[in-house]
Model the fold of this input.
Amino acid sequence: MNTIALLTTAVFAIVFQDPAQLSIVARPTKVVEIKSESQPEIYGKTVVAEGLTGASVVSAAKVVVEHNMKFVDVTARKSIQESGTLDQISLAPGVVVYILTGTPGDYLIEAVAFDPELGIKRQQIVVKIEGTQPVPPGPGPGPGPEPTPDPAPNVLNDYNVGLVAFQNAPKDPALALKIAGFYKDGADRLFGQSGISDIQTVIRDIDRKFQDKQCTDQESCRQWNIWKNEVTKALAIEQQRRKFFTRDNWFFALNEIASALEQVK
Amino acid sequence: MTLERGTLGYAWEFERKAMLDNRGEEPLELMAKFKDVLPKLAIDSDPTGVYDVRDQGRQGSCQGQALAGIFGACFWLHTGRKIKFSAAAGYYLSQKRDGIVGDRGSTLSGGQWVATQHGMCIEDDWPYPQQYNNREPEGANYSYKLAVTKPFSRTQDLLAWIDLGLPVQIGVLWGDSCDREVVSNWQPAGGGHSTFFWFRSKSGNVRNINSWGKRWNGDGVHEWTEASIDRAIKHRYSTFIGYGPAEMIHPTPEPI
Done:
């Protein structure tokens, strides 16, 4: 897929003046995504592409990073689990230009630069990709499909544990929030937040806290135990699917379980 | 307060700086591979939360102990898992590479060869013996390898490495100035000793993890000021190299 930047609207900028210079300018824009077999060529307002099968206008953002450092890297994240796609469209000395595409919403653009003389420098900026989030189909007027019992359209599921955690959770939001806290705390400890720990200890601690939880009744406890087995199984399957989890993977997977539980009503 | 000194064992007189230079990557280039880690590691963490301080006993195995510790640190950084690596492999294989016979220590260049070319094994495969015994066990799985820097020549690069949460193996002359809770005025005296830097203390000093047991200085760890590091890094018999888990090679671990 080939992307061409066409027009822009509002502008956000951060500029810093010191020996180590790193600045980001990001602005919402629209781009034309062209599906073609060959690299498109632009002649004035005409685009020529062999094997052209489609073109569409989509919301995006243009990101310009200016620096005087030796190494620079730029990332764009909408959430812990969701990244945007940054396509580098030009590179001049000290200036790198990207087009950011992804689902609509706010993205945190982070630039990190290194230089032997100037050290490390970081900058961040938030830019919006315009548009509306896809809305889950609800029951409309007249006959239609039966509503699903547990629609979970916004549950993050990059590690294939979010949906399992959401769909198997008992309707027990108070305890769900508490258990979410066990997973969040564990994930944080893998990065030294509130203490530092290894994943074996984190899992043991989650298990211990889970065992010590106070259920509202016996049935609720039984359902939560089923939930735990399903989540543990899903985690093991995902580890095998990915070969193994890195520390980052563990962080995101544990947070995926936590955020799924936070949506239990 | 002066701390009790344990056994040393960094054979600085056998160190091959040229080999360390040739086989290591530029610190800044290797650092670039770690900058995308998200979220950022809290670099004032207590390393004993994920690493069990070792005791080399009466053997001159400090370099092997530090190397095994660095493998543990890097494996945790990479996978979040805690595994004990073989200090015996770190010491005796380095010695073999160094051509050093008997319990007379080893070099960081020997350790670098183990870490990057021969490969390291876990403690279960080659347990640390009570007394010097370099007999290699059969069937050890040496499939753990790490990325390594050239020796640091500038303190600011070493500190940038530490501030990314990455460990640094050190080989220095260890005299009275080192037998302190905080090494604030390093002096080039004493025999050679190898340990590893990992994380900073709350005060901002760099934590140095020793191999003289958990009771040494309370938890087996003391601190170095930046000024001391700056002084030591410039000394001809000092060696500081950074290890990192970028493209770390290891067997596939069982799911947890």
About this structure: The interface with chain A takes residues 28-29, 31-32, 35-47, 49-50, 76-82, 156-157, 160, 163, 252-253, 255-256 of chain B (CB under 8 Å). The first helix of chain B runs from residue 17 to 23.
